[in-house]
Amino acid sequence: MQVFRAHWLAPWFNHPFLACEITHQGLVLHLKNERHSLTWQDLTAPPARIKGWRFYRLHLYCAQGDLELAWLPKPVADALYKLLTLTWYQVLAARALPLATQCLQLLEQGYLRQSRWQQLQKLLATLEPAAGKQAINWASLTPPAELSDREAAAIGLLSTLITADEAWREHCCAEYCQQMLTDYADLFDSLETHPLTDAQRLACVVDEDANLVLAGAGCGKTSVMMARAAFLVASHQAKPQELLLLAFGNEAASEMSDRLARHSSTSGVHARTFHALGLMILSKVEGAMPTLSPLAQQDSARVKALANWLAELCQQDESYRQALYGWLKNKRISITPEPDYHKLAREWAPIVAALKLYGEPNLTDLSPELAAQLSLILPLLHRYQHELAEQGKIDFDDMIEQATDFIRQGRFSVPWRYILVDEFQDISGPRAHLLQALRDAAPELSLFCVGDDWQAIYRFSGGDVRLTTRFADTFGASRITRLDKTFRFNNQIEQVASRFVQQNPEQLTKTLTTHTQSASPCVHVLPVTAHGQTEAISRLLGQIAAEQPQASVYLLARFRFSLPDLAQLTAWRKRFVGLEIVTQTVHAAKGKEADHVIMLGLGRGKYGFPPEQSTTGLLERLLPETDSFAYAEERRLFYVGLTRARQQVFLLADAQQPSVFIKELTSGGYPSVSKWG
Length: 677
Ligand SMILES: Nc1ncnc2c1ncn2[C@@H]1O[C@H](COP(=O)(O)OP(=O)(O)OP(=O)(O)O)[C@@H](O)[C@H]1O
Known about the structure:
This protein is of the alpha/beta class.
């Protein structure tokens, strides 16, 4: 035990301090009439040494109130100062070391995500002094040279972290990204047939708790999904089985699977649809594959069943029959000899589905006509539910909901660390809840979503674009990165398409640049009569084949029945052998591309583009809220059509009654649109 004494003159001048004894726990001060013990933790800072006229004083910063040890001869003051300072730092280092180790482990996990940042703050909060005690001023610490490197580093780290703010976190994130971009430059150069752009690379490495990559059409969202998967595996942040890629349709999921399989690093990564994910979760939890009702799997089976139930209800329930006939009469829909149940069932099927998904609307909010329609449709929903219960089967909505419940109940252990979602702009509320449940069940899980709010076109089946435009409201701490260079189409198509879609002020603003340029207009409007359409397409195909013998051509329409039939298609394929001609709806062409696009059915009316006479007043009330801009969703769909083309778009407009979109393009100040005929 060491004792440091004040000069013997001290008591003569009424100073109470006589000596200081250093123990393992702290120090014992010998005062004139008493002894006073202090633990090392009572000292909130290293001592200060103050030179007096002849003697020195040591100032002790104590939680209970500061003290002064005076009348110390210089050698005593120096030795005591050195010992107290060193011991104080050693005691602090003993506390700091385990904490700094935990903080380092968090920091070493990579990108300093918000969730990791919060865990850090929690750890650092353990350094807070007890109530009423003074906090250590970490910013002013200067550890002595006698501390070991580890001790000094631990104190240094905690001082940095305690004073760190959001800008510091941002700096760490940027440093991490920079490091990854350098380390994996070769991977990003060689993964695809083309090297990724800087913006695409950055989108791959940013790693917040939830990430949204917002990009225009053709900006390489799919390439980025693939590259991110490869990067996560190559950088050992995840094993292939810890990644899950999600798509909406089977075709997109299997295309992703093929692309993943082509690279050794991602060959073990799974791409699934949301439905396949739901099935997998249910079968894992229940030990057997759930059986899906045929009513869920085929639209035609569902419509047929609804039509039968309508006919049955009319036969068995006179009041229902009268109500239905009355409603149809009001709508001037023919009922002789009996209503067209099948047509009615086809129109009401989406309403039944929406009622199931979103529940019944408040009757008082509906007009008498819509309330009457609702009361006619509700019995169909009940029959549908009853049928599923009878069969002991479920539909897709039940599956997603049950899967979400199982996860929330902790009955499914989440094996993934990263979930990557394609075409995110079309996600529905229930699917977003499923993702949230997965995230909550696995706090280290990071979401990576790629989408384009300009291409949100699935509201009729529950897609809710607000989940994209207000991403952070649903998914919390998030980072949005943008891709603004399109590789698919040229500046001429871009000028038309971007201007067209941004007429709706509620679309997020984006400025796209294009990889290819064209000096002359590439969007052409051709007026055609109903009879002249086939001839016009033949001429166009001939012209395309003459200029470019090997090319792909999409014939796109708003409705399937507006497309040429198979016989006609086969004839064209025989005649223009070098052309790869595909007919499909604009919805089906989403995510795909061709050299040339010919859009058909661009007239007015119920089956025009946009379809003008809405039969879905009730459906509108049930679906997720939409923006108030007229034909907002149809405008986005038209944008999707325009942006499928790499080189040229031909818009075959109804010569008598051109679509309002065509009128806008030809007279709304679009200099890049050329008018033929
Ligand atoms: N860095 C790049 N360099 C050259 N070409 C690229 C690059 N990135 C993507 N592409 C090409 O651009 C085209 C569009 O890519 P992709 O289909 O991934 O776009 P997207 O953003 O998913 O489009 P959309 O939203 O319209 O479906 C593809 O032909 C792709 O190969």
